[in-house]
Each structure stands twice: as structure tokens, then as C-alpha cells.
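hey can u check if this looks right to u? its 261 residues, i copy pasted from the old doc so theres a chance i mangled smth
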Amino acid sequence: MINRRSVIKSGALAAGASGLPITAVSTVEADDAGFSLGQTRFVEVTIEHKVPENELLGSTDGLRRYSLDDQRNLLGLINHPAVEEFSGADTIVSTGTEFINSPGTIYGETTSTITVSTDYHRIGEKILYLSSQYKQPDIEIDSVDNQGTNLKINDRELSVLSGEEKSVTLSSAKVMVTEDDVKLGKESSEIDYRSIEITPKINIRDNGTVHVFGQEGYHILPTNSEDQFTDHFISARSDNKSSRIVSEQNADLFVVEQGGK
């Protein structure tokens, strides 16, 4: 039987560790929480491209979809909780913008915009607009098991062990861009094109098995995550009336209703 006194103490300690004013949150019994979605093998994959220096880059900001505590193997779903994708899933692969079950194929689309720098959440990424179409590398997730992830990148086989992170650089490709001053307003008849070389790099992080927490209508984040975004998110919402610390399955979670005040 879970001791309510120990649950409250645990939640209070977690609140203090996260910089939350303890009086601003309440703690519920684990039996009343029900945010656990079970355990899932979780893999993250992104693509970046090396481009010549001094290219004029744009920027875009994604929507953070989860908070990962890789020290305690906890994952909380936020914003678009994707509860259906995670519920009962043995494996989830994240591209930063979507979740897929393994096996499956990610990326491989034809595009006129490439990512130059990014993170696994696609937040604050730098992009380059092209004047020609470019086909992204095909990444096929063959299998994910307790040993690691097996995948093919343009028919090149690669294995990433559980708990490991790898990057692989692929062959360069030629694409067309316009001169930077053209982008600032010349007529189309005056556009000067030039060819540049870009080099794709694939980043893969196999997080092993994580315990997932999520529920429709809630932001849920592990309180002890060392992730800077998570700390800022919790601090900004700690005085929300719907916010509370939940202790469930030996995890201390910050929970707040979406759109709550």
C-alpha cells in the first residue's frame, strides 16, 4: 500500500528541487493519478545539412512535444500529447515533428527547404531555402529491440546500441540557390542562380526503454529533468491553479492542464 505521507513528501521535495514554490502546487496520491502509459522503446532521429559558410539562412520554431529525463528514463508528453500513438506501443521513433511505430520509413521527401542545424525537438532550427528540389535521405527503421536500433540510410546499414547516440555523414549533393541579394527583392527575370554543395548528417539517439506519462488535456513533465526547457516550463506555470506535483510509478511529475490558468 502506498503511504500518502511519503507521496506528499516526495512530491514536495521534487517541487523544491525544480524551483517551484512548494505552496503553489498540490500533490495527489499515486492511485488517483493514472497518467502512466507504460514502457516504450524510444528513439530520436534528425537530419542536418552542412552548407557553405555565409549562406543566408532562415529560421523556424517547432512545437515541443515531450520532455525526456534520460537519467531516470522518464518521458512526459506535452502540447500535442500523442497519447494514442504511445498507448500500448512497444517502440516509438520521433523525428521531432511526428511519432511513428517501428518498423517504418521516415524522411525521404522531396523538398526545397533543408535543415542546417536543429535539435531532436526541431526547436530553433536554421534552414536554407533552395531554388531546386532536393530529395532527403531515405531512413528505414528495420527493427528496435532491447539491444538497440537497426536501420538503413539510403541502403546503408547502421546499428545504434541501446543508450547510444550516433551521427553519420552521407555523400554530398549539388543543389541550386539564388544570390542572397536576389532574395531581398530582384525581379524574377534578373535572378542569378548558383550551385552549392550540401552534406547531410543523420543523428540517431536510442534512449532505451522509457516510462511514458501522458493524458489528453494535460502537460506532463518529469520534475527532475536537467533539460533547460523543462525547468523554464515548470517555473513559468508553477503558480497555475491547475498545476500540481504527482508521484506515480516512482516518478515525480509536474502536471498542469492545457489552457489552465
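Confidence is low (pLDDT under 50) at residues 1-31.
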